[in-house]
Amino acid sequence: MSAQTLYLSILASSMTLTESPDPAALASVELVTEYAFDSNVVAKVMVVDQKTFTTAADPLNNLVFKISFNDKIDGSTLTELQGRLYTGGGVEALEENHADNFSYVTGKLDFHGALDSQYDFFESVTTSYSASDAEAIKTALETMGALNELGAYRTKQVELAVPASTVTDLTPTELKNSLLDMRDRPRYLVTCDVASLPHIEALAEVMGKLNCHVLLDIGDITDWQSAVALTDTLSINDHRFWVFWNPNKSRPSNATTVLARKKWRPCVGDYLAQLLLRNAATNAAGIPPIYRPIAGYDFPVSFRDMEKIGGLTLDEEAQNALASAGVNVVINERFEGGDRWIYGDALTQYDSENSALRLTNSAEIETYTTNLVLSIVKKHMLKGMTSFVRDAQDECSRALDACVASGLLVLPSELGGLYYLLQITPRADDPFSKADIKFSRRPEGCARQVFLEGTVTK
Questions:
Q1: Beta bridge partners of 188
Q2: pLDDT > 70: what percent of the chain?
Q3: What is the rounded CA–CA span in Å between residue 370 and residue 383?
């Protein structure tokens, strides 16, 4: 979506927040953001007279504005900004006119977004007013109930409805380019939208270029046959593509009464949260325990008061069909200490009967170690060929040894007692500028099936 511009206008007897400037405004605050608002957001404006020194050129420098954007349903704060008005020109005029007074510049609302951080809620904030209207502005703020004295016990504020944003979906090309242009490499791409196959294909293309994972929630489907059919139509035979289905309903996480209705909700957000929490538990070498798949007893789904969608039966036929399609289903499983709602499998979309890449944790280890080797090799490129081969091989070996010690790689039967085999050599047809990397290893697996052979003896 394109940037949205909001205008906070102080009029003679009221205050407005609109998407267009008001020519009758005594003072205005222009806010530009890349974020979108729905119809459940309000802005709360409070002004405090700090009784500080002012000048004739900036007579409102004693008034501190606090503008907060809140969810009107639960009252949570989305973002807030605090500062003083400036007579116009934005941060550029401030820097030009007050280059030797940094505290003055940072005290203005216009400073928000000036550092051009990627985490700024507002890209720019520009305030303006005429010094000759200073008294009229103070009178207007007092009339509308927004002006507070310094240290007042009961504070006053004005609440304004925030105009809902007009959101235009990105085209598949725009989606792909925006993800590829990110400064930080994403490790996981998550979507709950199965309505647009071109968008899913765009994510799969990004997955291939960045060697990351795509997590797809196939949505509110009420029968397993449709879940299998939808997954089969995707036809993405790749170990980095994972599919999830939550055929259950539950109460909202903040529900305080049993009267709150149970609804279906996607499970992939909970899965991603548990994935990131697991990844945060790195060891001394900085390696996450990705050998542990997010599935089974140790990673329960914590939705409140869950129950299966009415009329759905996940019998042996259904579970075998879902497993064959590579769908990870949220199911209720009985254990010795009671039942739990869990992710009932750890499968990727890789089509194979016995490859490790069918398993989510093995797939993660494959991408993690590949990206690890490539990132190290990239550091040593544009060196002399001899030192490149030596330095890259040495550093990669140390990193992979740490992966072995962390449990990511297990001893294969085909490498002569080695946990991995990494060879970096100059390419035969152009040994001066090109090199080949050959990398073999066996990732840790996941116990999906157990066969019991029991004997009763005398």
A1: 213
A2: 100
A3: 21
Phi, psi at residue 17, to the nearest 5°? Answer: -130, 110
Q: What pLDDT is stored for residue 208 in this prediction?
A: 96
Sign of the Cα pseudo-torsion (374, 376, 379, 385, in order): negative
CB 9 within 8 A of CB 28: yes
Whether the CB-CB separation of 191 and 216 falls below 8 Å is answered with: yes
Position 447 confidence tier, pLDDT thresholds 50, 70, 90 = very high
Contact predicate 294/359, CB 8 Å: no
- Residues 343/327, Cβ–Cβ less than 8 Å: no
pLDDT of 171 over the 80 cut: yes
Contact 85, 63 (CB under 8 A): yes
**Placement of tokens 């500028």 in the chain:** 433
Instruction: List residues bridging with 215 in a β-sheet.
Output: 190, 242
Kindly report the average pLDDT of the chain as a whole number.
93
Q: What is the pLDDT of residue 1?
A: 59
Strands (E), 181-310: 188-191, 213-217, 241-245, 248-251, 263-264, 304-308
| Structure token digits, residue 303 | 């939705």
| Structure-block tokens of residue 27 | 């003072």
**Range from 13-22, 165-174, 323-332 carrying the lowest mean pLDDT:** 165-174
* Reduced DSSP (H G I as helix, E B as strand, rest coil) percent helix, strand, coil of the chain, to 5: 30, 25, 45
How remote is the C-alpha of 408 from its chain's centroid? Answer: 25
- pLDDT recorded at residue 153: 76
pLDDT tens digits, one per residue of 409-430: 999 999 999 999 999 999 999 9
Report the length, in residues, of the chain: 458
Residue with tokens 């590579």, as numbered in its chain: 326
At 368, the amino acid letter reads: Y
Sign of CA dihedral 9, 152, 136, 89: negative
